[in-house]
Design goal:
Number of strands: 5
CATH class: Alpha Beta
Distance between the termini: 9 Å
Strand order of the largest sheet: 2-1-3-4-5
CATH architecture: 3-Layer(aba) Sandwich
CATH superfamily: Dehydroquinase, class II
Number of helices: 5
CATH topology: Rossmann fold
Structural class: alpha/beta
């Protein structure tokens, strides 16, 4: 059984309420239950924080014992050298995901400090971006 973790960054705790035209109306908790049922051969853990240092601590904690990390660092994607360095320093492969197509949004969202250290990047497919990342590990 593959041991995977989804790590979500700032404001992703508001999924289902926040800008539904971009992010949809499903809460992440509802979505998580769906994907756990859909992928019974994977242990899928979940963690969310709005705090950059807490996200880095979590990456350090799971970065040597999990088979894969699915990371949506939210706005920290475009600002956090620390998260990028944390990914570089761990062994577990990371797939960067985004719900929206970040290249179709504001210009500052076109840069990622995560992408250079990630196994891959999936963006623009809504919550299905997470499923595609899960499939990449299975």
């Amino acid at each position: 059984m593959k041991k995977l973790i989804i790590i979500n960054g700032p404001n992703l705790n508001l999924l289902g309420k926040r800008e539904p035209a971009i992010y949809g109306s499903l809460t992440f908790t509802e979505f998580l239950e769906e994907i756990k049922d859909k992928y019974p051969k994977a242990q899928i853990d979940y963690f969310q924080s709005n705090i950059e240092g807490v996200l880095i601590d979590k990456l350090h904690e799971v970065g040597f014992s999990f088979d894969g990390i699915i990371l949506n660092a939210g706005a920290y994607t475009h600002t956090s050298i620390g998260i990028g360095d944390a990914i570089k320093g761990i062994e577990t492969p990371v797939v960067e995901v985004h719900i929206s197509n970040t290249f179709g949004r504001e210009e500052f969202r076109h840069q990622s400090f995560i992408s250079p250290n990630a196994k891959g990047v999936i963006l623009g497919f809504g919550l299905q971006s997470y499923e595609l990342a899960i499939q990449s590990f299975l």
